[in-house]
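Supplementary Note 3. Input sequence used for the single-chain structure prediction.
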Amino acid sequence: MNASFDLVVIGTGSAAMTVAYKCRKADWRVAIVDSLPFGGTCALRGCDPKKVLVGAAEVIDFCRRMKGRGVLSGDTRIDWAGLMRFKRTFTDPVPAQREKSLAEAGISTFHGHARFTAPGTIAVGQDNLSAKHFVVATGARPIPLGVPGEELLTTSDQFLDLERLPSSLVFVGGGYIAMEFAHLAARAGSEVTILHRGPRPLPRFDPELVDLLVERTRRLGVTIRLGTAVTAIEESGGSLKVHASASGETVTVSAEMVVHSGGRVPNVAALGLEAAGIEYTRQGVTVNEYLQSVSNPAVYSAGDSAHSGGAPLTPVAGYEGRIVAANLLDGNHSKPDYNGLASVAFTVPPVAAVGLSEYAAQSQGLRFRVLHEDTSGWYSSRRIAEECSGFKLLVEEETGRILGAHILGDRAEEVINLFALAIRYDLTARHLSETLFSYPTHSSDVQYMV
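The predicted structure, written as C-alpha cells, is reproduced below.
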C-alpha cells in the first residue's frame, strides 16, 4: 500500500500523541506508527505502572514505621501476583483505548517498524508512507553495556511485567531504575544488590541528600556496592553470576535475576535516518532551537529521541510535543523553556530536585546562600515516624530568587512542584514565606525552609 499524508508521526508516547492530535485538529492528514503496543513508555512500561507498584511499597513501609506507635501491622505484606493484576488494570486497556481515540480523531494507524527509505518516505512492512512532514518521537531504549553476557539481563520493561518476583536480584547501575525497583523489591521480600560504578547512586540529585537515602536503603537490607564496574554476566547452576571490578579486585555476586539499570539512550539507530539525511548522535536526533532537524527541515523530533537539552521525563515529552505542533502549524516561532523542571526518584521516601545544584550554581559564579537541614525531627516527619528527610535550598543573595531546591522525604514529589513554580516564575523566598499554607501539611513546611 502507498499512502500520502501531511504528517507522519513515529511513536505513540506523550510527545507523539500530542503532535498527532493537535495537527489533526487543524485538519491535517495525519498517520501514526509504532512497532510496540500503542501508548508509549510512560503509560505502558514506565512511570505509570511503576508508581502503582511503588504505592504498595509505601503502604508496607508506613505500616512498619508506625508499628509500636499505635498501629498493629500484623502480617502486612506485598502479594506480588495480586499487585501485578492491579497494575494491569491500568496498562492493559491503554493500547485499545489509544487506537480507538486515534480512529475517532481520523488519524491513520500503522503497526510495525518504521524505516526511512528517502527524505520524504518511510516503509512500514509492506506499506510505503510519504508525507510533507515527519516527527520522530520514538523514546529511548536500554543502553548497550558492552559486557559479555549482557543478553542475560532483564530490562526494566520486563521487570514491570514479572508474574513472580525473584528471590534475589542484582541491579547493574545505580540510577532511577535501580533505586526505585530496589526499594520495591526489598519490601516485597527479595534479596537485592546494586552494583554501581560511580561514587554514589542517583547522580542527578543532591549528593548530601542521596547519602542519607543510601544509608536508609542499606538499613532496608539492600546491598549497595559503589565504585564497582560490571565486567561480565554468566549462567551458572540455574542462577546468574555477575562479575565486577572494584578497586582493582574482582567481585562476584550471584542472583536469580540481573536487571539492566545502567541507563537508556534515544531509540533512533534503527530508523534508517541516514536515508532521509537526518543527522543524529548517541544523544538523539540533532535539532535546532525549534526542535527541527538541522539537516532535514521536514523532520522534527521531541521527547527522549531528540537531542534538545530537555531531560528524559514525561512532562518534557508532552511539552516538546506542543512546541513541535505549534511550529508545524504556524511556522517556527516557539522554543522550549526548561526552567523550573522538577525531577523525582520514587524511592521510599522519594528524593526530588528542581533548578540548579550547588555545584552548578557555583560554576556559574552566582552569589547565593544555602539553606540545608535534616528534617527528621520536624513534626511532619515525626508524626509518620519518617527518620529519613531533609532539604537543601539555594537562594540568590541579591534578589532572593530560588535558584535550586532539593528535597528528601515523604511527599517530596509533591512539595517540589511548589519550588518548580517559584523558579519558573521568579518567585522569591519572601513570596513563599508569606504564603498562607494549609496546616498541618508537608507543603506548609516550605515557609520554614525558606
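The first helix runs from residue 14 to 25. DSSP finds 14 helices and 24 strands in the chain.
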